[in-house]
Amino acid sequence: MGKKRTYGGIQPGVKWGPFTMRLPGVHVAISWPEAIQGAFLSLATGGALAPLMMQFFEVPFEVAWSILTIQLFWVWSQTVLFGDAYAAGWITPALPLVLVFLGGVSPGSEAVQAMIAITLVVSFLFIFFAITGLGQKFNQLVPGPLKAGIILGAAIAAFMSEINRVQTLPFTLITSWVVVLVLMFSIPFGRLPNTKAKVLMASNAMLVGFIVAGIVGTFAGELTFSIEWGFFIPQFGELLATVSPWGVGMPSWSLILSAVPISLMIYVLVFGDLLVADSLLKEASKSRQDEKVDVNHTRTHWALAIRNVGQMFTGGVLIPLHGPMWTGIQVFIMERYKSGRKALDSIYSGTISWYLLSLPLGFLLPIIGLIVPLLPVALSLTLLLTGFACAYVAMSMVNDNISRGYALAIGMITAFVSPAWGIGAGIVLYLLLIGKNGGAMEGTASKEDKQVS
């Protein structure tokens, strides 16, 4: 049982500095439906990063999985230790852009140092904007069409990454794509009566996609499962020696400077996530007058800086960086939260419970054995949904032909050349094609609230 709060008050916790710690079962009640679903979805989705780290950092699976176990702690800390009401996650729209940046350096220690450079610059931006409070002004300075181009670049890069992967697992991946896209975005499916089966599948679209992929992949001979009993032993020594500053050293100043353009892009995406999070919480508050949710962007900026730097020094660098919110899960928890206190006594009951079991289950070899064959599926679905969401968000941010063509051009340059060229060409072309007083085009900036990560 969690501590009871006064009607309309903030859920109790332990204040420390600007943060508030809330422990499950002590300060907030545990919600077991969220805990069980969250365990498997967090491990499967988080595990999607393992193949990327094996590819770019040239580390074995044991090291990649060790990084992910520590990543789970730092994700959970956003709510438990720092007091944010968001279901924390990665900066998911940045994933394709980060892959483009890492593709420009050699795999191994050079790629690790490149990721360290991004982490340092992005963390500096979080700290700078936390101290100055200029995040909103910076976000307003970036024109809507340029934001659309950055986001469209992420979409193009995401789809490009799947061209080769689908050739290795055609039946498995295409089937999982169809299932997840239908459950999440299909208009005809959405018009069907809201039966319990439909609601259950729609609210667990990723999990249903994994199950279908496992069945189809097994019958097609594309997937094989090997279950072992025992416990996973993290390879912390090798981890610190190969993917952290302790082992590979700090990047050169030239590499840090080269990470500045992509880091600015990433911050724009993060601020979009915060706007989405605020809109979700504001909408939910209309149905839950019994709880006041404490939203503080300065606190969130500090928490993001601590999470990313903490991850880098304790568990190695993480592709694609820690972010404020896992949007799909935040939406799911918000819907449960809006149904009343019997479903979720506090918003923190949902966000804290979601990651509660993922860390201990991540050390069980039988669970890992079930998840590992599905890692390519998890990665593919993550990139597919990122690309799909980024594409429709980018298109919704521009409302005239010049801006649409401009956004596509910047997106192509970002995806095919580099983020640095994308942002540089974006500024020049914006001044030449649209002008510094963008007029009606700037009205599209309000649509950035629709961004999805």
TrEMBL record:
Q: Where are the transmembrane segments?
A: 87-105, 111-134, 146-163, 169-187, 199-220, 253-276, 346-368, 374-394, 406-433
Q: Does the keyword Transport apply?
A: no
Keywords, in A-Z order: Membrane, Transmembrane, Transmembrane helix
Protein's name according to its UniProt entry: Xanthine/uracil/vitamin C permease
